[in-house]
Automatic annotation (TrEMBL):
Pfam families: Na_H_antiporter (PF03553). It comes from Zhenpiania hominis. One of its GO terms (cellular component) is plasma membrane. InterPro entries: Na/H_Antiport_NhaC-like_C (IPR018461). This is Na+/H+ antiporter NhaC-like C-terminal domain-containing protein. It is found in: Cell membrane. The keyword Transmembrane helix applies. The chain crosses the membrane at residues 16-37, 44-65, 77-96, 117-139, 159-178, 198-220, 265-298, 400-419, 440-462. Residues 182-461 form the Na+/H+ antiporter NhaC-like C-terminal domain. It is a multi-pass membrane protein.
Amino acid sequence: MSQLQYTRREVAMDGASTYGILSLIPVLVVIVSAIITKRALEPLILGTLVGFVILAKQNFIVAYLDSLYGELGESAYYVVVFGLFGIYIHLLERANAISGFTKLGLKFATNKKKTGLLAWIMGIIFFLDNYFSILGAGVSNRKIADENKMSREMFAFEINSVACCTCILIPLSLWGVFMSGQLETTLGLEAGQGLQEVIKAIPFMFFAFVLLIFVLLYQFRIIKPFGLMKKAELRAEQTGKLLPEDLEEEADENENKKDVNILNFLIPMVALIVVTLVFQELLYGLIVGIVICFLMYIPQKLVGFTEAFDSIAKGFEEMFGVTAIVISAFVLQNANDELGLAPFVVNSVVDIITAPLLPVIAFIILMILGFVTGSFWGMAAVCFPIMLPLAQALDANLYLVIGAVIAGCAAGSATCFYGDSVTLTCGSIAKIRNIDYLRTSLPMLVPPIIVTIIFYLIAGFIF
């Protein structure tokens, strides 16, 4: 995503007023009500309203609407990107353009383990951005996963996990660009020097390495899925029902269509990659990819002229739920910012931090803040100016702390069930609900998080 879109969400820490423990109430309301209702949008709205009740008392409706109106204007970028996301996926599906890749992929992915490996590799290949990884790996592998009876819950877990890890381990990603800029600002470096510091911190981004390995361990059944994920996998294997029991399987409109040339998928995707890489902006890549789909599919009669242009409206329509959840999460973040949630969490532990404990505390704080706010880059912008000077003052390993902060952001992105990454994965790719991800994937993330915490504890005393 564009750096501008995230830096506008920075939260001032020095002298920030907080509401203390009351700042935790809106987030708790969201989590508890989401578990009870099995929905995401309504709990987000409810939690936000509770936040504004604390802030504005009887004027909470006015305060909420003011925040919502302001967010709708500031979040126009997301509305456009998500809409283009929907258009691009809709065109690929209507043209059956993925069938050529699916046919080729099924020659390798003859079972669920190989399917998991292929999706893992594809997620890494599309490294430019977590959105991009979700799009590329998700669209290209969903049909293959379906054919091999992988539950959509497991598919969503893998796609989102790999996306959250890859984009921080490869510094050419948009995450790398943003983090480099944050380091230059915080450490007073010259333009371009921040990237060198990010590269030096990559070996210490333990969570990304650990989660990538755990994804493979789960897929190869070296560690068997457990809890509700185990039930989801058994359901898919034994009954062939890929979606949760209370969701209807979508009709496959391309079931009787002939497979099309693989170039109908590769050319738009390669163009999307190249343009995104050159301009460091996914929005431009999506526009070019959509235009190329029009130029290729209409002459081949894979989609009709009217149908192609109807996809513009349908793409935005199909992404409405995703957009509503993400914008609602941003409004909740506004309430959290005014309540001083981030300063409260950081200030609660800053007095007990020592040099050996700083890396693990930095990781845990960024993960928690990312999970409860859904703002991963925003929390990095908040915490870098605190954690890095603290590391220098305590004579802690600077690169270990940088790696812990960035890894904490990735962990927040992987765990936050109403964050943009999970919402895109569930809504546009896996076609499941965010709460399905929370109930099945969050427990699967606990073991890699525990291992990561142990690594940071050990590293803090060694390095």
